[in-house]
Specification:
Blueprint lengths: L17 E6 L9 H12 L7 E7 L4 E6 L2 H13 L9 E5 L5 E8 L6 H8 L3 E2 L5 E4 L5 E13 L7 E2 L4 E4 L2 E6 L64 H5 L26 H44 L2 E7 L3 E7 L7 E5 L2
Antiparallel strand pairs: 1-3, 1-4, 2-3, 5-8, 5-11, 6-8, 7-8, 8-9, 10-11, 12-13, 13-14
């Protein structure tokens, strides 16, 4: 069996502190779980039960996956297995590590707790791959302390000292500030926003907005870049990544990759910067105009109908010839004049004291 073969049973972010022992003999049946544990783990590698978190059988791969409590033990066993892999009973197995060196558990603190998880994931997606959903960290009483945990893989970067691209330990999403940290995080400078040293030993005069060494951030007049995706074409408040739905952010290979997202004005623009934002706005305006026209026609129809009913009622009264007029005559009270059917000429007056 190819020891470098990737299997479906291994998640994309790897499996921390885990070694896979894959059976390599084609002429022999694989050993049972008990034989493997007693002969390989306890006998050959001198591993104690308390040092192992889990021993899982993988029949499809003809392998056993051994997960240790501590990373140090994982590294120690891996080194020992490489030294004796061609001698003794271990020669029947190919040993590979399922852990990934670039795997990190990132703890993010946003000073504004209302910042959405997908917005933080979109920011992390600029530097890391396979960013997981957020896990809210709580104190001993059960209250959320404002920190969120994400699992992710550092992205490779040839320009970096150790070959990985690291997200800044201090960052902003619009007006909202945040910090992050994780195991094996390099020293970070708050002045130049660079890794490798701290503020006390920083002698560089470097702008944290544009990276220029000729001026500081307060003197920078370059166009500001988006805190989410780094583009200078828009700011964070207009960033398409900020308006993604949770399902979109959770899908794909990492934050900001693939999946469906909510339509925004920025999504309507093509690569040249001119496209259908105006066309869509025009269509919406046309629909609104038609709707207003229909409402106006309906209102005018109701008014016309009401007028016809009033005119019809007045005509009916005139046909009967009855007219009622009331007035108050000063000092005498109410005077009522009634006219009887037209043509009779009879008028009756009533006075009330």
């Amino acid at each position: 069996m190819n020891q470098y073969k990737q299997t479906r049973s291994v998640p994309g972010i790897g499996m921390a502190n885990t070694l896979r022992f894959a059976w390599t003999e084609k002429e022999m049946e694989p050993w049972s779980r008990e034989t493997f544990g007693r002969t390989i783990l306890m006998g050959c590698l001198r591993i104690e039960v308390k040092e192992v978190l889990c021993l899982q059988g993988n029949p499809n791969e003809k392998a056993f996956d051994v997960t240790f409590h501590k990373e140090e033990k994982h590294d120690e066993v891996m080194k020992t297995a490489k030294d004796v892999e061609k001698t003794g009973p271990l020669c029947h197995y190919a040993v590979t590590s399922l852990a990934k060196n670039n795997f990190r558990v990132v703890t993010v603190t946003m000073y504004n707790p209302h910042v959405k998880d997908e917005e933080v994931r979109a920011f992390l997606g600029r530097y890391m791959d396979n960013v997981s959903s957020a896990r809210y960290l709580r104190d001993s009483l059960g209250f959320w302390n404002g920190r969120r945990g994400f699992q992710a893989l550092l992205r490779e970067s040839p320009k970096s000292v150790d070959g990985y691209l690291y997200p800044p330990a201090m960052f902003s999403l619009g007006a909202d500030r945040g910090t992050l940290y994780y195991a094996r995080q390099p020293p970070f400078c708050r002045r130049c926003m660079a890794y490798g040293h701290i503020l006390a030993s920083c002698s560089a005069k470097k702008c944290r907005f544009c990276g220029s060494e000729e001026h500081e951030a307060k003197e920078c007049d370059e166009p500001k870049a988006c805190h989410g995706c780094g583009s200078r074409a828009h700011l964070w408040r207009d960033c398409p990544a900020r308006h993604r739905s949770y399902a979109s952010a959770a899908g794909g290979g990492g934050a900001g990759d693939g999946g469906r997202k909510e339509r925004t004005r920025a999504d309507c623009m093509d690569g040249t910067g001119e496209k259908t934002a105006q066309e869509e706005d025009g269509k919406k305006d046309e629909v609104r105009r038609k709707r207003r026209g229909e409402e106006k026609n309906g209102t005018e129809g109701e008014k016309k109908k009401g007028t016809e009913e009033e005119e019809g009622g007045g005509a009916e009264k005139r046909e009967k010839g009855t007219v009622v007029r009331e007035g108050v005559e000063e000092g005498t009270g109410t005077v009522v004049r009634e006219g009887v059917e037209e043509g009779t000429g009879t008028v009756t007056e009533k006075e009330g004291g």
